[in-house]
Amino acid sequence: MTKQKSETLDLRTERILDALVREYTKTAHPIGSLELLRCARLDVSPATIRNELLELCERGFLEQPHTSAGRVPTDKGYRFFVDHLSEEGDELNSSEAALLARIFEIRHEDEFMREFVQVLSEISGAFAAVALRDKDFMYETGFSEVADEPEFEDPARAREFGELVDRLGSGIREFFDKFARDEERIFIGEENPLGFPSYSMIVSQWHHPRGFEGFFTLVGPKRTDYAKHKAVVRRVKKIQKQ
Hints:
The chain has 242 residues and is an alpha+beta fold. It has 2 domains: 11-85, Orthogonal Bundle (Arc Repressor Mutant, subunit A); 94-241, Beta-Lactamase, CATH 3.30.450.40. It has helices at 11-27, 33-40, 46-58, 75-85, 94-103, 109-124, 143-147, 155-170, 172-177, 226-241; strands spanning 62-63, 72-73, 127-132, 138-141, 184-187, 199-207, 213-221. The chain has a 5-stranded antiparallel beta sheet with strand order 4-3-7-6-5. A two-stranded antiparallel sheet has the order 1-2. β3 (127-132) and β4 form a beta hairpin. The longest helix is centred in the N-terminal third of the chain and has 17 residues, at 11-27. The protein is globular and about 60 Å long. GO terms for molecular function: DNA binding. It holds the Pfam family HrcA.
């Protein structure tokens, strides 16, 4: 995947942004300076952390939802994390890697597709969809996993996500055809090609040893586990090269 041009950050600021994105992904609540000091494990004062957070807000990487609250990443902050911070040390564990590898040993096309989409959702915790190239049908699962996220305490958000899934399913061939030349694309918030800025998507190709091929996508709220999703994509690519 080609990385987009972006601003540079010094090493300490990168570590602070990295820690904040990861902690917010886990907790779904704004992250304050004291909590971040513990997560980032930096030998600096709380005042230094607060100054760094203020600068990251001023530069558009973070925002403060409420006056007394901590900070959360913006689309720009997530993009920097995805492009520069989310690969080092982020890999699937041995059982997850082995599970994915076994899926590609399945020889029958339909069985492979059903098992593949199930494992993608299970490992990533996201909604997953898998489609064959040049086909108008997708295998999907994981709606309930995504609907359990804190963002969906509002019923309107659950309905919105259902609309996203419906739109994806009704035009799956056209959707994947847009990315036929790209091995991997990550869409964050406003970049969402289906027009749902509260959600992010990763799209990647896959190739089976028996010759059939297609695309898969992982979809979740903007506060999704980008590091885990990218690790899934890297593992699929590695399996296909073996």
